[in-house]
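Researcher: Next sequence.
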Amino acid sequence: MKSKINEKDVFDLAELFKVFGDSTRIRILLLLFDSKISVNEIADKLNMSQSAISHQLKKLKTSSLIKNERVGQTIYYSLDDDHVYNIIKQGLEHIKE
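Model: Next structure:
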């Protein structure tokens, strides 16, 4: 890795890690590890309101950590790519060392 990282990249990286600083968002991401899932399913599994989940999904989507797909009337969410999976997986491995 370059030893010199520009300020924009430093700022963007800090903002990305802030998104991971919320336990509800982490739980949502963990639910998305294995499959696409709807807002209602996430709300049921986390025992939270749909509006609270939607608020967190918006932050995750804005940070390009998740993506969505509409199927009929239902929107399904999934991890944006393998990078997100790997970040969480490595974080879990790190804390369990």
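Model: The longest strand covers residues 66-71. The radius of gyration is 15 Å.
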